[in-house]
Amino acid sequence: MKKKNARAWFTCINEACGRRYELDEIVYKCHTCGGLLEVTHDMARLKKERSASEWRALFQKRWKTTNYPYGSGIWGKKEWVLPDIDNNHIISLYEGDTNLCFTRRYGEALGVPDLYIKMCGNSHTGSFKDLGMTVLVSQVNHMIQHGAKIRAVACASTGDTSAALSAYCAFAGIPSIVLLPKGKISTAQLVQPISNNSIVLSLETDFDGCMKVVQEISKRPEFYLANSMNSLRVEGQKSISIEMVQQLEWEVPDFIIIPGGNLGNVSALGKGFQMMLDLGLIRKKPRIVLAQAQKANPLYQSYRNGFKTFEPVKAGKTLASAIQIGNPVSVNKAIKMLKAFDGIVEQASEAELADACAEADKFGYFTCPHTGVALAALKKVIRRGIITRKHRVIVISTAHGLKFSDFKVKYHEEKLSGIRCRFANKPIVLEPKVDKILAVLDKKIR
Length: 446
Fold this sequence. Notes:
By secondary structure, the protein is of the alpha/beta class. It has 16 helices and 13 strands.
């Protein structure tokens, strides 16, 4: 049952059920029907508290201040995230507030001059996962402070989730457990939870296998589940939508391109836009394009049949390792949101995503392979004539390219199996003689 004065609570996403739970209950799926949960806010109360213009003014006043915790991109919107939590229990590393980069020359090259990249990887651990993890770990800390017997927080991960969980738990002084698929994540991603003193378990399986194990472990209430099936994460990630519109002076873009693996991000961004619409801060929705790697594309296959069915797949090895997921837990939320936002699902081959990364980097970016999936999908939607020069488009860059430096090096050394690497740029080995150097420069620089 909902607390009398609670301003937010869990609700089963199945409309026929709709059972409610307290946010301080340890629950991940509905006990009645098995459906996923979502955090529901008292929208009538939010409308009564402030008008749309007052909400915009409040969020702008808090933007990047040092007034803890409101300078965080997430906690600056606290009333829309976890309104009932004590500020002293919030675990924040001042995540969010990332730059919305106007692409200029790159957008013109693609034929979409009004193109932006939202650099979510410019965050504490180098990915957008920080945005949801600050909310989840804060709620866990809040529960522990009120007597919950939680011994550790656990997650399965392909890299970025484990980095975020380990950092925020280390900051909070809460033990963390990380289950990783052995040999399937980058060294940069592996070293983050190790450095943050997590208990790191390298399992001889894929992400979906790790996910099955962590769900079994978290049946014991002292091990709290941190994966995206825990809808607390969505509350932080939805801030991306609010932040982008705020950065565009409260104007809504025409299209959002999102790379998708476990599919928590598409439901999160959709929720952020829907809240702004319901509270009058915006007047229209963007269209959402969900991009998947071709080797891990169950939602793309479902989209192809009009979402009539959904079948998990055995994810193949992909350069976009963080979205190498064949059985995403948030699929039902994602499909619901894509239908509400006139969504499109596209896919990218290994060559397409690798070349899209390298092409963007030529214009000054250092994109992760998952952003490459989104950029490759964008190019396909442009070729289909759905996105044109008149549209304002934002691509969500989910992680920092430095986490995938091995991928970058192999691309430019032309050592990626089966990929031609059209934009490879190898160093030129020369004798230290000025005449020979100038001859090369004259040839290269036109």
